[in-house]
Amino acid sequence: MFVPDPNAPLPNLDDLPVSCGCRQLFPTSVLAFDSTDPTGHFEISCAPPGPISLVVQTGKWRRQYDGIVVTANQTNTVPMLTLPANSSQGSLPNIAISTGAADSLECLPFRVGVSASEYVMGSATGGHIHIYTGHGGAVTAQGSAESDQTLWDSQADLNQHDVVLLSCEGQETTGGNPGTPMNSTFQTYLMDYVNAGGRAFASHFHYAWFNTGPFNTAPNQLATWITGAQQLDDTASFPADIDTTLSGGAVFTGGLALEAWLDGVGALANNQLPIWFARYNVRALLEAQSTEWIHLDDSVSLAPSATQYFSADTPVGASVPCGRIDYSDLHVSGGPGVNAPGVPPDYPAGGPGIVPDGCASHPLTPQEDALEFMLFELTSCLPDLVPVGEPPPPSMP
C-alpha cells in the first residue's frame, strides 16, 4: 500500500517478463507506504495532506485509487480497498492453470473475485487467467489447449506466465487426454522456470514433477514421496494444524499470518483447519530447503502429522531466492460433481466442465480460504526479497 510519487511513473507490469527480484515492479520512489496486516488493516503515518492516490499492490496485482483527500493532523479513514478483479481496474499477473479430473483449482480465482472475462484459452490474449487442459480437466467455451502440448512442452511456453497452477488430474501427471507421461525434459523446463523467478503450485498427483528427475536429485531434492492416490476418507473431514514455528524452533511469521487470516475469516474450528478430500503424499520434507505450512493433526491415525502444504524457494539453496514452488495435498473440491456436504459442486459429474461458466457460486470453504491466502502469498514479492519464515525488509524499493 503506497502513495505514489507523481514524478515516478508506475511500471507497465504487463510488459515485464518473469525475472528475479521485484524492484522492477515498483516505481523508483514513493511518498509514503505501509504493509497490511493479516486482517487487511494498514496505517500510513506520513501521507501528505491534500488529494492523493493510493496504490494497492502485491506482486503484479495492482490497483490505484485516486481522489483520496487527506486532512492534516487527524486520523483519515479510507473506504475498503481491494485488488483488481479485471484489467479495467488495474494490473493482474498472467496465471496459467492446468485443469484436471480430480479437482477444480481453476474455479478458485473466480470465487475469490477475478472476473469471468479474464479467463481465456491457453496463451490467448485478452485475459490473465490462461486455461490449459490436463487429463480429464475442464475446458473453456472456446475449446481446449492441452497442457503437455501448449504449456510445459517448451521453456518459451512456460515463461509466458508469471504463475503456473497445476490442478490434480486424478492420476500421475500427463497433461492431456491421454497426454504425455512426465519426463525429465518437462521437469527441467519447470526447474528452469522457477529458478528464473517463476512461481509454481502443484496439487496432489503433480508430485510427479518432484519424485523423479532434477527435483529428486541432490542438492535440489525437496522431499521424499509416497506415490499413488493416498486417499484417507472422502466422506469425512480431517483436522489440520497451521505451522507457526519452523523446524529449528524459530517463529514462522508466514504461518502466524496464515493462522491469523484463517481465524479472521472464520475458517478455523477449535483453531484447526477442517480438510475434505485429504491426501498424504509427502513422506518427509527435506527441511533445509522446504518449509511446511499446514499438516494433518497427529490424531489422524492413517496419516498423523502428514504434510498438507509446503513451499520451497528457488534456486534451492540460493542466498537470495528468485522463485518458488508450492506443493499441496489440499484440494479445492473432489472433482466434477463432487464437493463437501452442503457445498455446491463445480461442473456436472462426468465432465469435462466448462470454465468459468460451470464454476459454482458459493462462499469459500475453509480449505479454499487457505488456498486463497497461499495464492496471494505465492504471487507476492516476498519470496524474491527474503527466504520463507523471515520478516519482510523495513523499506520499499
What distinguishing features does this structure have?
ten-stranded mixed β-sheet, disordered C terminus, 397 residues, 7 helices, alpha/beta, two-stranded antiparallel sheet, 21% strand, Rossmann fold
Mean pLDDT: 93
- The spatial strand order of the largest sheet comes to 6-7-5-8-9-16-15-14-11-12
Largest sheet: 10 strands, mixed
User: Beta-sheet strand percentage?
Assistant: 15-25%
Number of helices, where a helix is a run of at least 4 consecutive DSSP H or I residues: 7
What do we call the CATH topology of the largest domain? Rossmann fold
What is the structural class? alpha/beta
Q: Give the total of domains.
A: 2
Task: Describe the fold and architecture.
The structure is a single chain. The protein has 397 residues and is of the alpha/beta class. The protein folds into two domains: 2-70, no CATH class; 95-385, Rossmann fold (3-Layer(aba) Sandwich), CATH 3.40.50. Helix content is 14%, strand content 21%. The chain has seven helices and 16 strands. A ten-stranded mixed beta sheet has the order 6-7-5-8-9-16-15-14-11-12, with helices on both faces. The longest helix has 13 residues, at 366-378. The two termini are 13 Å apart.
Short description:
By secondary structure, the protein is α/β, with parallel strands linked by helices. It is 14% helix and 21% strand.
Task: Indicate the topology.
Layout: E1 2-4, E2 30-33, E3 50-58, E4 61-70, E5 95-98, H1 108-112, E6 119-121, E7 129-132, H2 147-150, H3 155-158, E8 163-166, H4 184-195, E9 199-203, E10 223-225, E11 237-242, H5 253-264, E12 273-276, E13 282-285, E14 291-296, E15 307-314, E16 323-328, H6 366-378, H7 382-385
